[in-house]
Each structure stands twice: as C-alpha cells, then as structure tokens.
What we know:
- It is a single chain.
- The protein has ten helices and three strands, in the order H-E-E-E-H-H-H-H-H-H-H-H-H.
- The protein has helices at residues 6-10, 61-76, 86-109, 112-132, 136-140, 146-163, 167-187, 198-213, 218-231, 235-249, and strands at residues 21-25, 31-37, 40-45.
- A hairpin with a 2-residue loop joins strand 2 (31-37) and strand 3 (40-45).
- The longest helix has 24 residues, at 86-109.
- The protein is extended.
- The termini are far apart.
Amino acid sequence: MSLDIALILNNWDYNSNEVTVRKITGIDGRPKIQMRLDLGILQMELEGRPDGTRPHGRESLLEYHNERLRRYSERHGGNEGFEISPDECNDVRQEAMQFYHRYLSLFHLGDYLDVLRDTEHNLQLFDMVREFAVEKNDRMSLEQFRPYVLMMNTRARACLSLEERDFDRALSQISDGVERIEDFLREVDREDMIDTCREIAFLQEWSERIRTNRPLSTEEKLRRELRQAVESENYERAAQLRDQLRELAM
C-alpha cells in the first residue's frame, strides 16, 4: 500500500484565503477533523488531545498539571512554590497550538460548544503558565495570544445565542468579550493598545452589524408603526398602537 497522500491532496483543493476543514470517519470508526494546509493535511481527534495522545496517562497536559498542582497543594498547604519548568512550558505551548488548530476548525464547522471547550482549555493553560512558570519569558510567552482566544471564545458564545435568535443575549456576550480583552490589556499595562486591538475592533464591528440587521421585535415594530402614524397624523391608528404597547408591557 502506497504511503503517498498525493491522491487525497489532488482531490481536495487548498484555498489560502479561507480555512478549509472537514469531518471524516477514521479507520477506527471515530469522527475526526481534517484541516487542509498548503503542504498537506492536519488530522485531529474530536475528543481529548487533538493528536490522540495521553500525556502521563492523562487526557491533556492541562489535566496532568492540574493534578500535580492539587497534590502539591495538599502536601504543602497551598500553591506557593509550585513550578512548571521551561521544558514543561514548551510542551504546554505545543498542546495549546494543537487546540488552536482544532478550535479554529470547529468554528468553521459551526461546532460552537466544542469551540468553547477548546478555547477555555487554552485560557486555563495560559493562566497556569503565567502563574507557575519558572522563567519570566515563559510566564509571558502565551499572553500575546490571549486577546485572540478571548475573541474566539466570545464569538462561539454569541453564535450559540444567535442560533437561538436571542439577539440581546448575543450583543451582551460580545460586550462582555470586549470588556474581558480591555481588562487584560490594562492588566498587562498595555491600555494604549485598546484603540488599535484587532480583536476588539472585530467584535465591535460585528456587534454593530447584528444591531443593524437583526429582525425587529414585536415591541420595536409597534413603536415604529406608532411613530409613522403620529408623523402622518393618523391619530386613531396611533391610539390603537399605544394600546397594544400597553398590553405588551403588562
């Protein structure tokens, strides 16, 4: 059997202008995600670590280090002195990159709940490295990616709300996401970046598009009709609309 993947690549075009992903069923019968790249394909598991491994017998390095931290805290009465070595930080960064590829793929497949799972995983990894890495450079090495992960987490939450046509909740979630990114930038003394942050700009523009294009609620429709009735001096119709609005408020 040939190991050449040219046949697969020739039947699946790569487009540099978009994320090209698909779900397949593996030879083990389990669903997997494939992401088309310029030089080949990434294949990822849907559950656990994207590469399918179990580091130290755990589902992920996050789970492993959380378990280490729990045992350390029990022995020492707290977290002070717990450390993640430079080599361990390097392994954590590799895991975070795997989860990045998967949540990006999942977002384009519309699997927003799994995007939440994977972005929360990476945010917890970032927190752990920032707090417990031995080297200062390691502690800050993942923070540059936090605004993007927060943005993707926010997009997934809001998309779930939009699927339920709950526009108000989606707008509130986007506002919360913007605030989380702004708070982070202030925390790392980069408040000067708030006005130029691409992630904040994207969320704000998306929020405006939702406000502009969302369907009007029953109350909004009645208020618009009422305004038009008053402007056209159709006071009988205006009175009827006021009565309908009062009934809605009861």
